[in-house]
Specification:
The chain is built from 11 helices and 14 strands. About 40% of the residues lie in helices and about 15% in strands. Helix 10 links the parallel strand 10 and strand 11. The strands form 3 sheets. A 6-stranded parallel sheet has the order 4-3-5-6-7-13, covered by helices on one side.
């Protein structure tokens, strides 16, 4: 029978934590096999878990019936998030872990957010393309919540693991491709200026130009915050210059689609009059008109790596590195060609 004081209907991590006089995070550590709990506390929690039928007794002691992690995005409209979700859920299924998907809450201090995750008994949190404040990080650390960042907008704390792609080399590869085709007037429409990935892509673009003996022209660099409409307007400005670019490299595929639309509106053909290179290899890139040359990010594998890293953290295992970057790949399609001959 269940012990008096914790009803069987509320046998949750929260109920066990109340009975043991510890935090939910401590109970979660025990059910997930983490070693950073004192022997006395571990024995008390395991005894309560068995008494209240929260778990079955196994050869190795208490075993968690359901393990769950949170996968949180800054927004759900980005098509790339579907591939990240696929990678996380596939790896989670292999590990016997459930995934709860949500959107970053409006909680600047992070206290309510951390408490919600803790009370729900989550094993940890994967946070995608969000800006995590120092106070939020402190709340997660204080609550003992394992955390992994995917492509964070701001520079992550050295103590917080992060997974991303080789944005610098991707930006360099895209620009070198255009240089090899013969382009010298190469513009870049970048994304958010405060995004770490954007800065790396911009630096890769500039490094490729400098390496080829081409002085970067600041007039050819525009910003569109990773969005279609601003990219469309920025491209119209570029095409109206006295000496317009013959190629444009963009911060993501959505911006590239804006550039292609602006070229049509300006009476230019892609790639005969202007070449366009995107970044991401979103699902629409291969079927756009023309099919888009772009830098592919391995989104599904990034998701898998994030899940595996989070589970290592939840088990208290050391990480080989707190920053992992998976290789990007240039995908050449029909939106790039040698520059037109101009009189």
């Amino acid at each position: 029978m269940a012990k008096r004081g914790v009803e069987r209907s509320r046998t949750t991590l929260t109920g066990i934590a109340e009975a043991a006089g510890v935090s939910v995070a401590t109970v979660s550590k025990v059910v997930n096999g983490r070693s950073d709990v004192s022997p006395e506390t571990r024995a008390r929690i395991e005894r309560l878990l068995v008494e209240h039928d929260y778990v079955a007794r196994g050869p190795g002691g208490a075993q968690a019936p359901v393990r769950t992690i949170d996968l949180t995005f800054d927004q759900l409209v980005n098509p790339n998030n579907l591939e990240i979700t696929r990678g996380v859920t596939e790896a989670a299924a292999e590990a016997g872990v459930d995934v709860v998907i949500g959107v970053t809450p409006d909680d600047p201090l992070g206290a309510t957010w951390a408490r919600k995750i803790t009370n729900a008994g989550r094993e940890g949190l994967i946070l995608v393309t969000s800006e995590l404040t120092p106070r939020q990080r402190a709340q997660f650390a204080q609550a003992g919540i394992p955390l992994v960042l995917v492509d964070p907008m701001n520079v992550p704390d050295d103590s917080v693991p992060s997974i991303g792609a080789t944005n610098f080399s991707g930006g360099m590869a895209a620009t070198e491709h255009l240089l090899k085709l013969g382009h010298r007037r190469i513009a870049m429409i970048e994304g958010r200026h405060d995004a770490v990935c954007n800065t790396a892509r911009l630096h890769g673009y500039q490094a490729a130009l400098t390496g080829a003996g081409v002085t970067p022209d600041p007039r050819l660099i525009k910003r569109a915050d990773f969005r279609f409409e601003p990219a469309y307007r920025a491209a119209l400005e570029l095409f109206a210059m006295d000496d317009p670019p013959t190629a444009v490299f963009t911060g993501n595929d959505l911006e590239a689609f804006g550039v292609i639309e602006a070229a049509r509106a300006h009476g230019l053909r892609v790639p005969e009059d202007v070449s366009v290179v995107g970044f991401d290899d979103a699902s629409a890139a291969a079927t756009s008109a023309p099919p888009l040359t772009t830098v592919r990010q391995p989104f599904a594998e990034i998701g898998r790596a994030a899940l595996r890293t989070l589970l290592r953290l939840s088990r208290g295992e050391p990480l080989d590195s707190h920053r992992v970057e998976l290789a990007t790949q240039l995908i050449v399609r029909a939106s790039t060609a040698p520059p037109p001959t101009r009189s």
